[in-house]
Structure formats: C-alpha cells, structure tokens
Amino acid sequence: MKKLFLLATLFMVSTLFAQQATNTLEGVFTTKAKDELYNPFKFDGKGKVTINEFGEDGYEFFERNDSVVIFVEKTVFIFKKEKNQLKGISDWVDKKVYKSNLKSLENKPQTDSKLAQRANWMAQNYDINFKNNATFLFDLDENSLIQKLKENEAANAKLCKEGFDESCKVVFAYKFAEESGGVFETLNAADELKLKPNKELEQLAQRVIDLGNPDGYGLFYTYYYFTGEKEKAEQFLQKGLDLGSPYCNEISINSAMSEFGESLQSEIENSEDKK
Predict the structure, then answer these.
(1) Residues 232, 199: one domain?
(2) Which of 35, 47, 80, 168 could be disulfide-bonded to 23 (CB atoms 3.0-4.6 Å)?
(3) How far apart are CA 129 and CA 147, in angstroms?
(4) Do residues 110 and 23 lie in contact, with contact meaning Cβ atoms separated by under 8 Å?
(5) Which of helix, strand or coil describes residue 190?
(6) Quick one: three-class SS letters along 48-112?
(7) Residues 165, 213: contact at Cβ < 8 Å?
(8) What angle do CA 91, 47, 32 make, to 5 degrees?
(9) 68/186 same-domain check
C-alpha cells in the first residue's frame, strides 16, 4: 500500500496563449463568509500569494486577461477580476467573492525579467498540465489519450530544458511511468514494482534540485525506493524535509498513513485469528 501511495503522489505531479501573462497583483483580498478556510489572500506583486494567516512560503500565481490562477498543492484556484474583487470560478472557490481596497485590478507588466519569465512558465504550466485535463481523461479513446500524453510530455520537456523546474518534475513522472510499464500498469502493480537504475531519471531529479526546487529530493526518494535502495531513499527524503519541500512532506504524510493502515489491518487480522 505504501508503494501505491508513493506512486499516486508522483503521478499527480503530471496531471494553448492569449494576452501576455504577468504576476504583479499586489494587495489583500478578504471575504465576509464566516469560517472560510481560504481567507485572506495576500498577493505580493512578485508571483506569490499566501492564503490565510498561516501561510509562510506562499503559492505561485499568474494573471492573464481577466483571470488569476493560483497553484495550490495539486490543483488550481481560478478567479475572475471584477472591479476591485476576485470572484471564484473553479473548485474550492466557486462563487466565492474576495474584495480588496484597490481601485483597479488592471494587469501590469512585470519589470523583473526573471519574474516575468516565471509568469509565462506558470501560464504554460497551467495550459499544458491543468487546463481541460480532467475532461480529456474521460473523453478521449485509448490511442488519442496516449497521443495527448506524449504531446504533454514533449511540451513539458521543452519547458524543462528552458529551466522550468515544475515541468522537470512532470517529465520525471512520465519517464518513471515509461520505465515501469505505463501509468495505469504501474499503479495496478505497485506492490510488485521494481525499477532498474536509470541515469535519465537521476539527471531529471538532480536538475530539479539544481533549479532551486527541493522537491527534487522527493523525486530521488521515489527513484531509490523503487530501485530497492531504501536507506539511500530515506536520506534524500530527510534532506528534502529539512529544506521545506512540499512534495517530501506529502510523501512523509502518505507513508505514515499507509503504515498506520497496514498496522491496523494486521491487528484486525490477528484479532480475528484468535477468535
């Protein structure tokens, strides 16, 4: 079960342009709704937004046309701009309204070249890996789906080569699936899966680290866990946790849940045997 949790976490990483994207929105947006978990939103004008009073590192976002897209964990929050308000139009924030004291939410170009590049990458990330993906999984036949996945992998490989860390993570997930027989085959045979050493996977995980994203340590953990080098895997996981990797934190939580479930199941079986 632990292997299945680990694979599901990896493959969720991997779940086309109008106006130039930007990420300059700055200000605090609040809702009057009581007991709202996602409140307030604090945009820093540099591509990051913290949610509620407990956010520290923040989530990435971009603006395009009249939309604001925030990347939260494995999903996106999408808002439409209207005067000085943000109106939710996606899951988790649908129909919720957040107001600010700003006079206008007009898109402003990002003057910092690195932040501008990041905004464009995040917009492409959304188009490739999030936009309409929930529908094509069900609407396409097998051959069309395989072709779509190949196109997505190629698009992510291009962004990875340009230096976009998030796309490198997606390419790692695709390559991992290819090396282990395919996404669905891999998930169905999680308990028996054994991966052979693969330099390309190692290079992709290292590239994520080199690009400044500690999630690369989580990719190394997944890789070494399935090649059978579990002690080495744990070292990478701990390094990622020490550096605040969200992916490593998710792996750690899922592993603990899996181990708890297996322990509970074992106790139930032992109890039944004694009857």
Answers:
(1) yes
(2) 47
(3) 14
(4) yes
(5) helix
(6) EEEECCCCCCCEEEEEECCEEEEEECCEEEEEEEECCEEEECCCCCCCCEEECCCCCCCCCCCCC
(7) yes
(8) 45
(9) no
Series of mean pLDDT values for 10-residue runs along the chain (275 residues): 58 52 97 89 97 81 97 94 96 95 93 97 95 67 80 96 97 91 56 85 98 98 94 97 94 82 60 57
CATH number of residue 36's parent domain: 2.40.128
**Locus of tokens 């866990």:** 225
What is this structure's pTM?
Answer: 0.83
- Answer whether 219's CB lies under 8 Å from 213's CB: no
Domain range enclosing 100? 26-110
Angle 172-90-171 (CA atoms, 0-180°, nearest 5)?
5
Residue 207: C-alpha distances to residues 161, 222, 233 (Å): 10, 15, 17
- What does the alpha-carbon distance between residue 213 and residue 268 come to, in Å, rounded to a whole number? 41
How far is residue 217's CA from residue 245's CA, in Å, rounded to a whole number? 8
Q: Do 22 and 33 meet the contact criterion of CB atoms below 8 Å apart?
A: no
Is residue 275 assigned to a domain? no
Burial per residue of 82-113, b for 16 or more beta-carbon CB atoms within 10 angstroms, e otherwise? eeebbebebeebeebbbebebeebebeebeee
